[in-house]
Every structure is written in C-alpha cells, then in structure tokens.
Amino acid sequence: MTFYGCAVLRQFEMMSTYVLNDSVAITRSRDKLRSLQLLSRKGLGLPVTGFAHSPDDIPDLITMVKGAPLVIKLLEGTQGIGVVLAETNQAAESVIQAFMGMKANIMVQEYIKEAKGADIRCFVIGDKVVAAMKRQAAEGEFRSNLHRGGTASVIRITPRSAPPRSARPRRWACGWRGSTCCAPTMDR
Length: 188
Ligand SMILES: Nc1ncnc2c1ncn2[C@@H]1O[C@H](COP(=O)(O)OP(=O)(O)O)[C@@H](O)[C@H]1O
Ligand SMILES: [Mg+2]
Hints:
By secondary structure, the chain is α+β, with helices and mostly antiparallel strands. The protein is built from 5 helices and 8 strands, in the order αααβαββαβββββ. It has a 4-stranded antiparallel sheet with strand order 1-4-2-3, with helices on one face. The protein starts with a helix and ends in a 6-residue tail after the last strand. Adenosine-5'-diphosphate binds near residues 77, 109, 111, 119 and 144.
C-alpha cells in the first residue's frame, strides 16, 4: 500500500498538486528506524535501540539494550504486527535469529516497563498538537494498538507529556500526522 500510495502521490507532486503529506514524509514515517533517527537528531529521549545486520552481532544487540525483557520490531509494520516482547535472552536470540534468517530488517529496543501497556498518541497539524488520546493495552498484552485489543480515551495533553516542538512531525515533513507515542510515565 505504501509503495503504491507513494507512487500515486509522486504523480500528484509532479503535477504540482498540493499534497498534505508528501511521499518522502510518508516513506520516512513508515520506517521505524529512520523515524527514530530523525527524532533522536533533535535530542528527544527515546528507548535505547539497536540495529544490526549480521547474526554474529546478536549478543551485542541484546547487551546494548540491557538484556531481556526487550522488544524486537520489524522496521516496517503497523497495528502492532511484528512487535515482539522477548522475556528472556534465549527467546530474544531465537526470535532475532529467525527474523534475520528470513532477511527481515529488525531493530531491538529496550522494553519500557513503566509504561504498563499505555501510550499517548498526539495528532499534529503543522507543528501544533491539536488532539491526543491515551491508549491502554488489553490485559496480558503490552501493545496498546486498538487492533490488538487496546482501548483509547481522549486526554488533554500537558506540556510535560506533549512531544517537544522540535520532535513534532516536521521531522518527517508531514503536514498532518498521528505522531509519536510516549509512555505517559516515561521521564526521558
Ligand atoms: N520499547 C517498548 N517498550 C514498551 N512497549 C512498547 C515498546 N515499543 C512498542 N511498545 C508497545 O507496542 C505498541 C506497538 O509498537 P509500535 O512500534 O508503535 O508498532 P506499530 O507501528 O505496529 O504500532 C506500542 O504502541 C506500544 O504500546
Ligand atoms: Mg504504533
């Protein structure tokens, strides 16, 4: 869908038609590692994240995020699909090996336990947060995605929980976007 959608958008861009989110912005946002790199460039506190190509690097990857429990993610994916919580180092190693064996690009991330399955999604127009919702994962699930059984409620965002201005989706050059999910109790 992204490939096809971006091809169509590029056609509009070529014709100088105004597009709310251009194809480059969408491509940036679809790649989880690229998004994090853009955000971290602006100094936003993010979960420790590792990326590697070779199976030889798996032990270092696990050590880098301070060991299990840790989160393994496909670089491309939505609705929580391809986001895995590995409870032990052995499980992490097996899952990473399996993904690498399938030539899937993955990243390994520190598990934010204090989030307790919750996150905040901010909706941004330009560089202004216009609405926000808190999502809570279903019982026994760490992913807050509604497609994974999570629930959502409208919240009023405070300056502390809003993503800093520098981290808002201008980093992807999006005009409108549901942005960065922050763990509400995360003080980083
Ligand atoms: N490092 C993490 N620590 C704790 N929970 C996480 C972490 N990464 C993701 N999650 C949970 O998993 C959900 C899905 O992860 P996300 O990277 O947003 O994938 P997707 O793009 O498929 O929604 C998040 O909304 C959050 O609830
Ligand atoms: Mg998400």
